[in-house]
Amino acid sequence: MDLIARLRAGLPDEAILTDPDITGSYANDMASFCEAGTPAVVVLPRTVEQVQHIMRTATELRVPVVPQGARTGLSGAANASDGCLVLSLVKMDRIIEINPVDRIAVVEPGVINAVLSRAVNEHGLYYPPDPSSWEQCSIGGNIGTASGGLCCVKYGVTAEYVLGLDVVLADGRLLTTGRRTAKGVAGYDLTRLFVGSEGSLGIVVRAVLALKPEPPQQLALAAEFPSTAAACEAVCEIMARGHAPALLELMDRTSIRAVNAMAQMGLPDSTEALLLAAFDTPEPAADLAAVGALCTAAGATEVVPAETAAESDLLLQARRLTLTALERVKSATMIDDVCVPRSRLAEMLDGTAAIAEKYGLTIGVCAHAGDGNTHPTVCFDAADPDESRRARASFDDIMALGLQLGGTITGEHGVGVLKKEWLARELGPVGLELQRGIKDIFDPLGILNPGKLF
Amino acid sequence: MDLIARLRAGLPDEAILTDPDITGSYANDMASFCEAGTPAVVVLPRTVEQVQHIMRTATELRVPVVPQGARTGLSGAANASDGCLVLSLVKMDRIIEINPVDRIAVVEPGVINAVLSRAVNEHGLYYPPDPSSWEQCSIGGNIGTASGGLCCVKYGVTAEYVLGLDVVLADGRLLTTGRRTAKGVAGYDLTRLFVGSEGSLGIVVRAVLALKPEPPQQLALAAEFPSTAAACEAVCEIMARGHAPALLELMDRTSIRAVNAMAQMGLPDSTEALLLAAFDTPEPAADLAAVGALCTAAGATEVVPAETAAESDLLLQARRLTLTALERVKSATMIDDVCVPRSRLAEMLDGTAAIAEKYGLTIGVCAHAGDGNTHPTVCFDAADPDESRRARASFDDIMALGLQLGGTITGEHGVGVLKKEWLARELGPVGLELQRGIKDIFDPLGILNPGKLF
């Protein structure tokens, strides 16, 4: 009996897509420079039992399975391989429970981040993780890549909000990990092991998520600096003095100019770095005044604090437009995701500028500065083989620089296909061996998202 | 060559203890009802290289190794087994780095929790995890058991503060996990796997810890309730309304009376439950007023907000004395550590009272109420075999009740020897099989803390 016939035994017809014109549209996530193969079939289960049937079938027939959320990932972790079964979780999109006393939500993996955020807001609650793609990305994908966002400097990443999981294992068995309690230390933390595992250990079919009380409306400030070093000095001072900004973002000269060119934001061309800080504290104006003074002391030429939410939105708009603006510079972009200790941020930014010059490329950087998490975006002409080669080489130089500064090759985007050679360099041989050992425990046949991570 | 001679090849004489009168004093942690064997040797290394030598030796000779911190644990995880090598990390007690910009500390495992707390305070920083034993317990032990404390309701547990680890593996190789950056998602989260693993996967020899800015001085409130149900209703309301207390503790009638009997605290004997809340916010008085009003609405007969730090300390003293007071009720105590969703806290407390009645025992409960984490403390006469049997049986009933209410058998004390049969019940066969698989990857010879956890 072949794969499709087996699948049909436990799935309705509409859950199985085999038309190559349609299945082909499931081949990629949003990463550049990552190969993708042609899936044999795409399945869209709606229940845990259906996922179990799919995995039992895949195990029996030794078919590789590529789990997918909303395919907004930036590392190729959701890319299809030739002949694989694409397991899309987008139809499992129910919010099962929102509990204000226990401050938890129980959700299926296909729930869109923004849908959950709005739903919990109605109960006075807050689900902090806010990837830029939050209107499109799914909670399952967020868990798979351990996504971050702008809020992380105050609220941490997705991993810190996952309390428990239901996971369908490679062989179709159902595993429940973790808890719905505030605390719990019974056994090894398997929940955390699945977060960021990019679909390589099992299929997350349900998650218990921690929620926070909804904070007050945030108020932002923008500060213009004559050098990235001065802006980074301000970042270090802000964090060393114990401030708790809800976001602390930095745009470099290239990003500022790209946004100016696209949207006439009126930022002076002499600005070498723009720092954006926001507070969702009870007295945000007082926090902005203190942080504004630190910016001025660090050399800011202009500090503009918002007085209303509308003014805050306007200030943050430049940051939101950055990637779109950089995408207009050349025909293609490659976005990197190197995170360094925030005390090394200035070196990371200066080093990235030197790499851009070395390769004769435009590289714009926006950064979650408070976290030391930079997103250098290499702009290049994909039709020009030499420029493409230089773009790829600069990307490697940027990761090498990040590691040299005591950082990591990925702060929040994950490894996928894009960075798997670099993962081995970051982990070293002992770490890599243990990670492979864990993979083998959960997926002895190697059918779960093969070719990713390692 | 025998074990001691091999050890001497890489350790100074004073690091090797073999006198049975001395080594015997390393046999136990502070758990009741847990067997302990006689160690063959106790070693007290001061360097990573010495730990590597010890583990290489243990691997060559297949000697079981029991890692120990300050032995303040409450589950027997640090208890010796017959013929084992006790590996005490207490001499590795250096604070290597405190970095206010990156908000991290780098420490060796033997650093005492309170010593680290005071050291980071001097830099305006805060290391939140605060087990009751914080003046004695070590960071390595805190990591091994994923310890909690009073602050967890606002600041979370030890696990949330461990960014990266250096670990000596069973065979002596050195593994570095995690990062010193604010974010990072490169590969599976091995750091988190070690936290709470009770020395069963490797020997933590260095940790990178996240720090917070030091919060304002906290201010507390005490509220007396005519029933535990009313106190639990107040807890649910406080948390559902979005308050962020820095502690939210509950004492039941038995605990209150024990403290009264010991310290003449003057709490009215009609009080069935005492709730203590504290805030370290910029305006604690306003928060206390709001929470006091919620307590009154839930039926509190008396609400006493502190106006100064000294008054706060006085209010919290009753809670601090609880365990000591309960230890005076009978010759022995067994402290449990069941955590339930906070919405089920009233059922847990009423159920525990029913279990005390069923077995004719005194069981006092203090609880980290905001976390739903209860510490039922069974008071019994250890010289009375029947009462001891009933104490043990009630302990099991309490864990069964916790699981039935959607909770966990351990919120913060760990599994050790005490709860290993119960761990299997909480995890289920699939979870247990995977956990054993992970153990085998890290410790194929089974020499690391055998007989614990599983």
TrEMBL record, chains A, B:
<dbReference type="InterPro" id="IPR016171">
    <property type="entry name" value="Vanillyl_alc_oxidase_C-sub2"/>
</dbReference>
<dbReference type="InterPro" id="IPR006094">
    <property type="entry name" value="Oxid_FAD_bind_N"/>
</dbReference>
<keyword id="KW-0274">FAD</keyword>
<protein>
    <submittedName>
        <fullName>Putative oxidoreductase</fullName>
    </submittedName>
</protein>
<dbReference type="Pfam" id="PF01565">
    <property type="entry name" value="FAD_binding_4"/>
</dbReference>
<keyword id="KW-0285">Flavoprotein</keyword>
<dbReference type="InterPro" id="IPR036318">
    <property type="entry name" value="FAD-bd_PCMH-like_sf"/>
</dbReference>
<dbReference type="InterPro" id="IPR016164">
    <property type="entry name" value="FAD-linked_Oxase-like_C"/>
</dbReference>
<dbReference type="GO" id="GO:0016491">
    <property type="term" value="F:oxidoreductase activity"/>
</dbReference>
<dbReference type="InterPro" id="IPR004113">
    <property type="entry name" value="FAD-bd_oxidored_4_C"/>
</dbReference>
<dbReference type="InterPro" id="IPR016169">
    <property type="entry name" value="FAD-bd_PCMH_sub2"/>
</dbReference>
<feature type="domain" description="FAD-binding PCMH-type">
    <location>
        <begin position="35"/>
        <end position="214"/>
    </location>
</feature>
<comment type="similarity">
    <text>Belongs to the FAD-binding oxidoreductase/transferase type 4 family.</text>
</comment>
<keyword id="KW-0560">Oxidoreductase</keyword>
<dbReference type="GO" id="GO:0071949">
    <property type="term" value="F:FAD binding"/>
</dbReference>
<dbReference type="InterPro" id="IPR016166">
    <property type="entry name" value="FAD-bd_PCMH"/>
</dbReference>
<dbReference type="InterPro" id="IPR051914">
    <property type="entry name" value="FAD-linked_OxidoTrans_Type4"/>
</dbReference>
<dbReference type="Pfam" id="PF02913">
    <property type="entry name" value="FAD-oxidase_C"/>
</dbReference>
